[in-house]
Amino acid sequence: MIEHSLQAIALSLKSKEISSVELTQLYLDRIARYNPRLNAYLAVDPAISLGQAQAADERLARGEGGPLTGIPIAHKDIFCARGWLTTCGSKMLSSFVSPYDAAVISRFHAAGAVVLGKTNMDEFAMGSSNETSFFGPVHNPWDTTRVPGGSSGGSAAAVAARLAPAATGTDTGGSIRQPAALCNLTGMKPTYGVISRYGMIAFASSLDQAGPLGRSAADCALLLNSMAGFDERDSTSLNRPAEDYGRELNAAAGAKPLAGLKIGLPEEFFGEGCAPEVMHLVEAAVAEYRQLGAETVAVSLPSMGLSVAAYYVIAPAEASSNLARFDGVRYGYRAPDYHDLTDMYCKSRAQGFGAEVKRRILIGTYVLSHGYYDAYYLQAQRIRRLIANDFAAAFRQCDVIIGPTSPSTAFKLGEKASDPVQMYLSDIYTIAVNLAGLPGISLSCGFAGGLPAGLQLIGDYFTEARLLNVAHRYQLATAWHLQRPAAFD
Amino acid sequence: MKQWEVVIGIETHAQLSTEAKIFSGSSTAFGAIPNLQANAVDIALPGVLPVLNRGAVECAIRFGLAVGAEIAPRSVFARKNYFYPDLPKGYQISQYEHPVVLGGKLVIQVGDTDQTVHLTRAHLEEDAGKSLHEGAGQHFQGRSGIDLNRAGTPLLEIVTEPDMRSSAEAVAYARALHALVRWIGICDGNMQEGSFRCDANVSVRPIGQPHFGTRREIKNLNSFRFMQQAIDYEVQWQIATLEDGGSIEQATVLFDPVTGETRAMRSKEDAHDYRYFPDPDLLPLAIDRQWVEQIRAQMPELPGAKRDRLMVDYGLSLYDAEVLTSSLELAGFYEAAVAIAGRSNAKACANWVMVDLAARLNKEEREIGDSPVSAEQLGGLIARIADGTISTNMARKVFDTLWNGEGGSADDIIASQGLQQITDHASLERLIDELLATNATMVAEFRAGKEKAFNALVGQAMKATRGKANPQQVNELLRRKLA
């Protein structure tokens, strides 16, 4: 059962081969057994989960319910979920129980899915290794001495170790795609605005986007069908007709299912900066795509090299303001001792935030300050436009861009923790996609030294269905995505 | 001795009369139990997002049209970042570089002359909550309370050029603006509840000096009287300081109504760096021409235009027209009364509205909007005076009856109480003849040259008819008979 696709699980539920309560219990048992090795979950509440499973079973018994009814899903702890501890990986919110549901949670609830638990993450989604969590790092199921990637590291480790059939994540600079790459998963960041941000604790509002983390593109398509949709509570949510993101997956295809597809290979993705063993696997995947009928063209994204710099101005700027509400006044952590208002602010925030969050608040405050705003913030916004223009030009030549997701496989815990710049460079291939607001997907393209490597596909705005199909066709032809870490039987 | 020139610019925060807050669905009603009107967005829970209330934008457009300003087709909401307990998000959503209303002007009356105050801009923003430093109950001991009911209430901040040259001009501007925002229905103007608050930027310079002096900003002036007092004090303080050889430091000051003095709250050195940047949670505000034209079509006639029209159409004096256009309700009442009484009685209507009705309303502390006597009733009453049905004195009695709700119309009351004036020549002549016959002494006295006796005879005639005789006719008849 734990190797079943979501579609197969749904069939089993419908045919009463297994009940949602049994399925949920199966995963709760696995969590109880394996989570101590991984630290992937921050909150599990069997009573709530089994109650929801019971309700799902009743719904299924009435012959109602959709593709996700009764399926347990793990949620990144960045999504507010009513009655659940919602910490965002921070001491600041270590005792915060949300009184309301995020749009993503509501949509899964409406679909009849079960909340399996809340997963660990980098504090306020700031990190690429899940080491900045106040609740300790998450371990990579493929090698528990290594990081799972971040910031959606808990969700990725949980799905990779089969402690959840699927999970949600958020991606501000690569936080779904990079952990997907490092954990042998498929993870998608949709076009900015496709999934409502309401109830998703903001890191950098103009870049944050929720998305699915699953074991295959087909699973991601099912999840995205539930997650996507206009929400009037989010002014940046896009009001577009609903679509079936899996619509291209079941189309009959011959030996060359991707004939006519033009894949762009940006020189900036295939130059220096990527570990050779990863590059080798990416090139092999490109060869596989040619086998599937796709044609490849060289494209160029000349401003790509500026993306990390621009990102580390814009994201901290927005974060410095977004995190101002965590002031100890109304909810969240408040320092036990203080002598006046300013002291209360200073101590609560100094004690409640971790080092990486403080670093970014400081950077963000600095770049927005009088006299620096033009030189940093406005300049970064100009770069952002250049990057978007680069992609627009590239998509006049190709349908999909391919490259590595991450420049390396999973690195050792602690390896980059003391070097923020090295850590920031882990997202060198993913950040530009967020700056441009484009959809991107990561899927595994093989193993190097027993560790998975990720292939990234980037599409033009609103081409999620095509990206999922391009990933799906590769997964039909290969078996990398079916590999499971041995230690989690 | 140098001659000094005063330079004043005003920033006004007008709370907009929308039902809901500017970025959340909470009610904006005043006076609820603290924090009852604060939802997840207002208390800034993690993950919540603002959604712009179009009603607030409509108010801004109405204002822009009323002052002949440019309505920006694209304006941008920005975050103004600072920490304060009554600011839940740690930033205020405002407009900074790209406000919704650009330019415009307001004509004000100072003494007998019209002056123009140019506006720089007007922008939309959200109000903060309130910090409560004293209150009943144990939890206030040594602590402050936060009430977030006001947090997120829509404000229009209206900024003038430094066009005013005296406290009188500043107050005239504030009054004109206050009347205008109420006139166009975007703000209730309640200064006690803080719906309309002004900050005055004040500086002085020697006459002839081309550049402005250093200004100090007087915050939160919530009455016109305080505004006048605060500016007057500030001006004399600045002049005295400069004449003593001192200099003015840029500062924010507060006016203390008890001492009548201003005192510095914070200086330029501890001025905040608000780190404004465009709010990524809100798209730029796009306003298309069609929306603006739709609103323009619904705009009421503005006070200046109405004032001029009242003078032309009804022959009113500038003063009368000014008074009657001091609020939309009053002007509407007046015009409705004229519609009933007839255009030829427009002046009489003005007098009744401005004198009799105003006095009565004032006495009972009522607004024109809840006058017990409707415009139609008053117009009907004035018509009956004009056509001679009743005398002015009798009309006051009818007015009282109407005020007390004891009659549907002047005609009803006149008929039911038999108040109709006696104007029938024959019956009046009969009455006078009887009077002269029974009051021989008075007649003799009059003939002997005592004018007083004549008045006494008139009084007798009025008494005999319980005030209903037409006094003018009685006069004429008496004169003739006694001649």
What labels would you give this structure?
heterodimer, A: about 500 residues, alpha/beta, Amidase signature (AS) enzymes, 8-stranded mixed beta sheet, 3-stranded mixed beta sheet, 15 helices, B: about 475 residues, alpha+beta, 10-stranded mixed beta sheet, 3-stranded antiparallel beta sheet, about 40% helix
Q: Would you count the extended β strands of chain A for me?
A: 11
- Main pleated sheet of chain A: 8 strands, mixed
The whole-angstrom Rg of chain A is 21 Å
* End-to-end gap of chain A: 12 Å
> Which secondary-structure class do the elements of chain A indicate?
alpha/beta
Short synopsis of the structure:
The complex is a heterodimer of chains A (489) and B (483). Chain A is of the alpha/beta class.
SSE blueprint:
The complex is a heterodimer of chains A (489) and B (483).
Chain A: H1 6-14, H2 20-38, E1 41-43, H3 46-61, E2 72-76, H4 103-111, E3 114-119, H5 153-160, E4 167-171, H6 177-182, E5 186-189, E6 209-214, H7 217-227, E7 262-266, H8 276-291, E8 295-299, H9 307-322, H10 341-352, H11 355-367, H12 374-394, E9 400-404, H13 420-424, H14 431-436, E10 440-448, E11 451-459, H15 464-477
Parallel strand pairs in A: 2-3, 7-8, 7-9
Antiparallel strand pairs in A: 1-3, 4-6, 5-6, 5-10, 9-11, 10-11
Helix pairs in contact in A: 2-3, 7-15, 9-11, 9-12
Chain B: E1 4-15, H1 54-66, E2 70-71, E3 74-75, E4 77-81, E5 91-95, E6 101-102, E7 105-110, E8 113-126, E9 130-132, E10 145-147, E11 154-160, H2 167-183, E12 196-206, E13 216-221, H3 224-243, E14 251-256, E15 261-267, E16 277-278, E17 285-286, H4 289-297, H5 303-314, H6 318-324, H7 328-341, H8 346-363, H9 375-386, H10 392-403, H11 410-416, H12 425-438, H13 440-447, H14 451-464, H15 471-482
Parallel strand pairs in B: 13-14
Antiparallel strand pairs in B: 1-11, 1-12, 2-6, 3-17, 4-5, 4-16, 6-8, 7-8, 8-11, 9-10, 12-13, 14-15
Helix pairs in contact in B: 2-3, 5-6, 7-8, 7-9, 9-10, 12-14, 12-15, 13-14, 14-15
